[in-house]
Amino acid sequence: MSRVFTLALLLVLPWLSLAAQEVRVAFVNTPLVLEQAPQAEAVRTTLQAEFAPRDAKLAEEQQAIRQLEERLLREATLMSDDDRRRLERELLSLQRELKRSRDEFSEDFNIRRNEELARMQREIAQSIIRLAREMGLDMVIENGVIYASERVDITQRVIDRLKQEHEKNN
After folding, report:
1. What CA–CA distances, in Å, run from 41 to 33, 37, 44, 82, 170?
2. Domains defined along the chain, listed by start
3. Chain segment 82-122, per-residue pLDDT in tens
């Protein structure tokens, strides 16, 4: 009987010491971090600068199409059938080209946005890990949390850390 007791004690003892240790857990509101981190504003600025010229060109093309449409409406009755058909074909061709350009623009923008978002998410994750290690945390939870008290919510600390890192790198 004493062997069974000793064996049971040996099996349970490690679990008891583990349970006695304090496990430090924290929570991060990732959507809030993504919204307030200066890196997010930097990404928005970068994408704006990169895609603004193409967006302006698309707006100009749209305006040119509107002017042709207005001309066709205004002068259709005064034009010969050949001129009207030529203008209609030109208008249709320009509309198709604009649609293709818009689709291309949208696809390119989404690809670049996703690249920048992935880079920013990696940077945020690394910052969270560094902060967690400095704070001596055992676990940081970000999704699936129904409630987190202010005592375990380190979201603002992460945002502050990201601001410091952003200022240091720029």
Report:
1. 12, 7, 5, 53, 13
2. 22-169 (3.30.910.20)
3. 999 999 999 999 999 999 999 999 999 999 999 999 999 99
